[in-house]
Design goal:
This is Alpha/beta hydrolase. This protein is of the alpha/beta class. The protein has helices spanning about 1-20, 45-55, 85-95, 110-120, 135-150, 155-165, 175-185, 195-205, 210, 220-225, 235-245, 260-270, 285-290, 290-300; strands spanning about 25, 35, 60-65, 100-110, 125-135, 250-255, 275-280.
Length: about 300
Amino acid sequence: MRFFVAALWLLLYGSVNAQVIYSKDYGNPQNPAVIFIHGGPGGNSNLFEGTTAQALADRGFYVVVYDRRGEGRSKDEAATMTFEESFRDLLDIYDQYHLKKAVILAHSFGGIIATLFVQQFPEKVNAFILAGALFAQQETYDHILKCASEHFKNDKTRIAEVLAISRLGKNTADYRKRCYEIAGKMNFFNMPVPTKESKDLREAFEKTVFYTTSVRNQESPVKFYKNEIANNLDNQPVLKSIRKKGIPVYAVYGQDDGIFSAAQLSKLKDIVGENYFQLIENCSHYLFADQREAFIQFVAQKPGN
């Protein structure tokens, strides 16, 4: 009887635990698998899923998207928001979709998580693609604040804001949040010249359930910076070590993604190799929505192979 109760508890717990993580697959499971890792902390996969997942699957890939525990559609008040937790959940995604190996496609903060995952579980990865992904966080924050100082040099209020941000603790959620807020005030996340295709794609997205369910958990960054001691990372040495393990690392970025300096991207190009790196013109941070066809073409061609 005691064994039966314990087994029943484990069954129920496993079922509930599995339901916590939102995920969905697109395409033929027999095709090469791609797992999308969204930004954050506090983000979601909605924009990628609503604009690009099916289109990428139509090019011959088996695409899996999910929202990390405690973020987006994966509501969980007990989420700790640590790297270890995100790794366990990603391994569960592999199991759920019967994947032995996959291409990891990481966007924004997802690049930090994915880089550490690929380092720890190289046997699970066929290739790694950084797509507008963070890789040296403090360099990004320094670049944003330097640009803000120049951009707002004649605005005393904004200059005072920049100074206040620079005085915050560099390993705090507030510092990260306010850096990105001021980046937004400089239109760093906006496509410079929206094309008809990009406008149509965004308008179509706004008519879908993905738009209406695109929620951000504002508590997630607070939890992450409280519970995860490894934050504000420079993963450039890790990327070099991943390449030495024989895993192809690719990088595709918007040429107009203001949160990265030209020097940063030049260093990344040196790490991954010229044939594995691409800048997309007239494209900002959400490159899969700004220039979807160019983005998919890069992923589908896998230059360097």
